[in-house]
Amino acid sequence: MGDILALHVHGYRVGLDTKDPDANINFVSHAHTDHMSGIRKNADIICSQITKELAEVRSKRKINAVGMPECMSMLNAGHMLGARQLYIESEGLGCSIVYTGDYLIQRSSTSEPIEIRNVDVLLMDSTYPFANIVFDDREETITSIERYIQYKSKIGCVVFGAYSAGKAQELISICNGIGIDPVVDGKIARVTEIYNAHGYRLSFQESDANSSDFGSSAMIVSLSSLDYMKAQASNRGKQVFTAVATGFAKTMRFNTDIQFALSDHADLEQALDYISQAAPKFIYTYGQNAATMAKNLKAHGHRAQEFDVRSSAVGTHLMLANNAGPLLE
Ligand SMILES: [Zn+2]
Is 214 a residue whose pLDDT tops 70? Predict the structure, then answer.
């Protein structure tokens, strides 16, 4: 998220998962690095307790978490453990606002189920705005992953490249479900310990990638180590099958033996489902595909517009939206 995304509410400037030098407070929706740029020296942060713990381990910085202003609260986002949406009830603006951050409608076994509340104005993530990208039921995808590991483990080891936080823990959970304690690298192990401190029972073996003998049926390493691991394995004459499990498997070809489209985001159909439950009067889309998302939401009869990141007069935009003014066309 390179662009600045911020809201003016009750005299606050609230940075939303963004590096905004003028923000009074910074909302960090979850502990993925592309959403953690609000974390900097002396910055006041609002986030969930779990995100604070995960982000501190990942960023190796102390986070100055402050209390939530009275007009704000958080809703589960479903995307990964600790992920939250920001709900703002603004008397000043005369409307309620939800900023979704990354969100997942389908259920993941390693995150809290999403909460959707009625809202006037929705600031909606646009990662997958395309009608032709449709995610399968997660259970089906998970079953495919289980079968693949079981089949390949008879002759070798399956090595997954995954985000250290979120996807790696879900893959550990999938492996545990078929009786395997996967080998993970140190980064993933530290994050998983926080999951376990919050009630999960994820079972894994930790190994330094350099000393790994590929003896386990499954390994999970950071995405950036996957090529290195592949080379290590072939140097040692081991049968290794590389894999990724990400929604981008629908749009990109990865240099792995197999790719599974296990996404922690909503597809367009699921975004529309969110909208029908939240019933917003107006939707602002943000992110790389914001323009496409706004266009597709309009085609489905919704009032939607790409969030104008260059405008600092966000409050004015929202007031106009709420009063069904000329911005609504
Ligand atoms: Zn994320």
Answer: no
- CA 295 to ligand 1 center in whole angstroms: 23
Residue type present at position 270: Q
Radius of gyration of the chain (CA): 21
What is the pLDDT, as a whole number, of residue 309? 59
Phi and psi torsions of 297, nearest 5°: -70, -40
Q: What is the pLDDT of residues 58-87, one digit of tens each?
A: 888 899 999 998 889 999 999 999 999 999
CATH of domain 6-132+265-328: 3.60.15.10
How far does the centroid of ligand 1 lie from the alpha carbon of residue 226, in Å?
20
Expressed in angstroms and rounded, the spacing between residue 151 Cα and the centre of ligand 1 is 30
Which pLDDT does position 210 carry in this prediction?
59
The pTM of this model reads 0.91
Span from the CA of 168 to the centroid of ligand 1 (angstroms): 13
Give the per-residue pLDDT at 320.
Answer: 43
CATH 3.40.50.12650 residue window(s) in the chain: 138-260
Please give the distance, rounded to the nearest whole angstrom, from the Cα atom of residue 117 to the centre of ligand 1.
21
Reading the block at residue 274, the tokens are 């969110």
Write the pLDDT tens digit of every residue in 144-174. 999 999 999 998 889 999 999 999 999 999 9
Q: How far is the CA of 174 from the centre of ligand 1 (A)?
A: 20
Write out the H or E segment, with its range, that includes residue 150: helix 138-152
Cα(34) to centroid(ligand 1), Å: 7
Pick the CATH number of 138-260 from 3.40.50.720, 2.10.10.70, 3.40.50.12650, 3.40.50.10330: 3.40.50.12650
* Distance between CA atoms of residues 255 and 237, nearest Å: 20
The residue among 301, 268, 282, 283 whose CA lies nearest residue 130 is 268
Cα 165 to averaged position of ligand 1 atoms, centre (Å): 9
